[in-house]
Fold this sequence. Notes:
This protein is α/β, with parallel strands linked by helices. It is 43% helix and 18% strand. It has helices spanning 7-13, 20-27, 46-62, 77-84, 98-107, 143-152, 164-177, 189-198, 208-216, 240-243, 266-280, 283-291, 301-321, and strands at residues 35-39, 66-70, 92-94, 119-135, 158-161, 182-185, 203-207, 220-225, 253-261. Strand 5, helix 7 and strand 6 (182-185) form a beta-alpha-beta unit. The protein is globular and about 65 Å long.
Amino acid sequence: MKGVMFRSVALALLTLTTPVPAVAQTIGDYPNRAIRIVVPFPPGGPADLIARFVGQKMSEDFGQPVVIENRAGGNTAPAAQAVARAAPDGYTLFTPMDTTMVMNPLVMNNLPYDPLKDFSLITLLTKNMSLIVVRASDGPKTINELIAKAKANPGKLNMGAGTITSRLGALLFAKEARFDAQLVPFKGSSEISQAVLSGTVDFALDSTGTSLPLIQGGQYRALAKYSTRPLPQLPSLPSINEAAGLPDIAESSTWIGLTGPAGMQPAIVEKLTRKVASIYADPAIAERLEKAGITPLASTPAEFDAFIRSEGERWAKVFKDNSHIKLAD
């Protein structure tokens, strides 16, 4: 994908040739105290999982505590605003998502932050694939069975989704498959899983990071992936495009990055970018993340910026082409 590099980026970043003395003079002994990573979702979801994993490795390597602070709600805007107002000293970091950096500017009025001006971009962390899942005990066996059930019961099925990206993906799926269902919005993946397993919703869009353990444990059944990309953990799972005959439907996936407040010293940004790259460069760590359904994905700050801008253009067109679709609050 343009502007993004996968595991090879981690290796490339490690070979950057910035003179060490210049970096040392700029950042001193950073970090010399605890780093706080603000996660705009409750514990247990993909953003929380990747923040805790990367934070733990940072703590081990830096010799300083890395504290995870969960600030859920408001489609990630309150957490983003708090980080944007923090001191740009490298001790407050943030794991924004597609919702924070791309979707909120498209759907929210009076957004209390500017995604392109209020943050120092460090690196992408992961791009998760969305899956359409049902309860394994009594849910439909295939995506076409789900569509047929929805068409036979217009407006009676509930579909769950968390982020704005996932909500839009669910609504576009219903539109393209020509059925009517009720969207039930949630704050995070932990709420979605409770709703699916309790029968509150009939199906949901959820990320691989949360879904895979439930699929492997026999609680979820995955009907399709909302992407044409390979999914090594479920190699036989079809894409929604091929399984439901929806060739024009665009990928719905969530991504997570690492940022800090605008104005961070470039040398500190570079040190953090290098650190994530070094973490991902370890094949054992990359394999561990991938088994958990989290694809490790690193980038330079410039590539991260280009990616955000390209995603903004892509989703702006989707909204323009589907202006009648209203997302639930």
